[in-house]
Amino acid sequence: SEDIVRKFKEIKAETEDDDEDDYTEYKLTESIDNILVKMFKTNENNDKSELIKLEEVDDSLKLELMNYCSLLKDVDTTGTLDNYGMGNEMDIFNNLKRLLIYHSEENINTLKNKFRNAAVCLKNVDDWIVNKRGLVLPELNYDLEYFNEHLYNDKNSPEDKDNKGKGVVHVDTTLEKEDTLSYDNSDNMFCNKEYCNRLKDENNCISNLQVEDQGNCDTSWIFASKYHLETIRCMKGYEPTKISALYVANCYKGEHKDRCDEGSSPMEFLQIIEDYGFLPAESNYPYNYVKVGEQCPKVEDHWMNLWDNGKILHNKNEPNSLDGKGYTAYESERFHDNMDAFVKIIKTEVMNKGSVIAYIKAENVMGYEFSGKKVQNLCGDDTADHAVNIVGYGNYVNSEGEKKSYWIVRNSWGPYWGDEGYFKVDMYGPTHCHFNFIHSVVIFNVDLPMNNKTTKKESKIYDYYLKASPEFYHNLYFKNFNVGKKNLFSEKEDNENNKKLGNNYIIFGQDTAGSGQSGKESNTALESAGTSNELSER
């Protein structure tokens, strides 16, 4: 019949499209391999580990660079190369070389992924983040009378006498509020007072919420807000389910033509929830930046409501906070003389709700080449333009051999940026900073019922065998680490090891340089360049 013939043609067309996409992916992978080989040369030690100079770029590499960007444009869905001018061979080479210099300690597989960031093909690479932010700070005021009467004071809370003000911070559990006690934070092996990285637990709900890309739209306020609510759902025992960012974007009350460009705040996200009482899943209404600005969609019968039985709670007037219906916000500037209290609040909320929303200044700080594995020691600003999420924390030793702590931050610029979409930043930043890198944090105050149906008990095998990685236990004993003293395990002087710790930013509870969030080991780029015959033979 005609219907059967039509259906057959549709299936055939879809199959041909899939085959074409697979072929393009194969050619792109091949092109990346070829470029990585051609960009390194043999040095005096006969190791192929030195980057070539601009004047050493030959015609074959020039052709490969243009071919690479042409293929990348075909597969890229972020709008980077559709909205900004593609560079010439020299622009692309300089962008790639800069990327390789900033990530010289990365393994070869990580670099191959970073080569899939379309920003490297731009003529003006700084244009990349122009429309990848989207936070507009709301006009909020402190209740000064209440604020002055209820300044947070932790004199009666436990203190670490060895770490005052600028070091390792421990959570004061008295900060926990009554409503947080209903959260499922039983995964204390991967998230506790000293160390929190649920990404290490592959079976954890939060680790299965994959990094997303907001594309060429100022929608970071949506992605940070929805992820915060997604982790709250995880901590309430629900399955990992992404919320539709496009639904929120298109139901926003701003002008249709401006929804992609003007940005907003998490308070608007909460207002949309309250107005519509509905949040579909990403699978119901998938995000594509080019569709931002369309009409608010009519809810279809088969769509699931991820806000079913959810309620927005009224403000609680927390000390040092800006409170409104459904949220509590803390500005780091208000804790300038007591940053430990600010840190403790964030840690407690991450332990209980899985994440917090964080406001930062991204302009002139975070570019396409930004390193996510190294702990960044950054100053902040008196304003913010981008919304991200703090999802964890840990401890490390800096280049001066000092014990420090860091935040694990999730961005919405896709998996090819940073450390698979994440980065680490020192909790306090340099001592000369006027502002902390984290401008503010926002926590949603919502009431979601516990979902006991999917709550899983730990297997009894973990009563006898190790569940956590050795890195967890290394981090657990971090307080006892002192550079230049005896090795804790051998009781012998271990100057070589201590020297290594002092110079290489050892991060406890995290992978060593080049291993990524997944924990896989591999050679660095320079080492791989010296043994990359299999690439050149393809």
UniProtKB/TrEMBL annotation:
Keyword Glycoprotein: yes
GO CC annotation: membrane; symbiont-containing vacuole
GO molecular-function term, one example from the UniProt record: cysteine-type peptidase activity
UniProt-annotated location(s): Membrane; Parasitophorous vacuole
PROSITE patterns: THIOL_PROTEASE_ASN (PS00640), THIOL_PROTEASE_HIS (PS00639)
Record keyword Hydrolase present: yes
One Pfam family hit: Peptidase_C1
Keywords, ordered alphabetically: Disulfide bond, Glycoprotein, Hydrolase, Membrane, Protease, Signal, Zymogen
GO biological process entries: proteolysis
Record's bilayer topology term: Peripheral membrane protein
Location of the region described as Disordered in the Swiss-Prot/TrEMBL record: 512-538
InterPro entries, sorted: Papain-like_cys_pep_sf (IPR038765), Pept_asp_AS (IPR025661), Pept_his_AS (IPR025660), Peptidase_C1A (IPR013128), Peptidase_C1A_C (IPR000668)
Chief location: membrane
Ranges of residues in domain Peptidase C1A papain C-terminal: 193-444
Recorded family membership: Belongs to the peptidase C1 family.
UniProt-recorded name of the protein: Serine repeat antigen 5
